Amino acid sequence: MRKMKFLAVLTASILTVSATSCSEDKNEPPVKTNTEKVVELLKSIETGATEPIAYINANKYIQHNLGIADGLAGFGEALAGLAGYPDPATVNTVRVFGDGNFVVAHTDYNFFGPKIGFDIFRFENGLIVEHWDNLQEKPATASPSNHTMTDGTAVINDTNKTAENKAFVEQFVKDILMGENPDKLTSYFDGDKYIQHNPAIADGLSGLGAALQWMAENNISMVYDKIHKVLGEGNFVLVISEGKFGVDGGVPTSFYDLFRVENGKIAEHWDVIETIADQSTWKNQNGKFGF
Known about the structure:
By secondary structure, the chain is of the alpha+beta class. Helix content is 25%, strand content 32%. The chain is globular, with a radius of gyration of 20 Å. The two termini are 39 Å apart.
């Protein structure tokens, strides 16, 4: 009933936002941060609340999820599609941080099935004008070290080291994941102390080494070709990359890797890996990246 009520008023809400989203009440300064707006907007997928739609600029909303049409209408169409899905939508945003006019959210979803996702929103003048995401099917079991894809600390600290940590993690991706200086691997870690949330890989450099050996033995490639964006706040850094993953050379893939830095070393890692859909299936032409 709650979902049907939401769908019944969604069109009216979008029309209202279209008329009002670019105006401001000069007597009432904004009280919500951009991160708070993102959390509320994502939660509205579960609750059916229509108020957070007002956080989207109705006249400019660029969509990079290739399965959703551009603009606010595309957003509404995607939510309306949930009405015919047998399981109710759930949204649990586990960690969220900001970097300038960008907000990153790491979320455990039931959105057309259980998924783990990273969402990135770009703001202009307090309104959302652009969205990117990466989604991966949620595994039924924990990792070899008994971690989920979202557990672990969400506390942001070392905000004075944001730029330093972003540069450090970006160089790690270049040196190790892109293969520019693989001999530097151990310099990025504090021995074997490394918490790994990839569902197929155990903790530590030893776990990573075992996983890479298994991939080689099974002709599975994981190639990082290009870094598109690095976003971070304090000890958390997200790197958005493009490459290939899979057997026989792999298929075009989007990699979202979140790292936690502690005392100048990589201490923890979460990721979401998504195959880039064939362009013939895209519902918008903005591309998967386009930062």
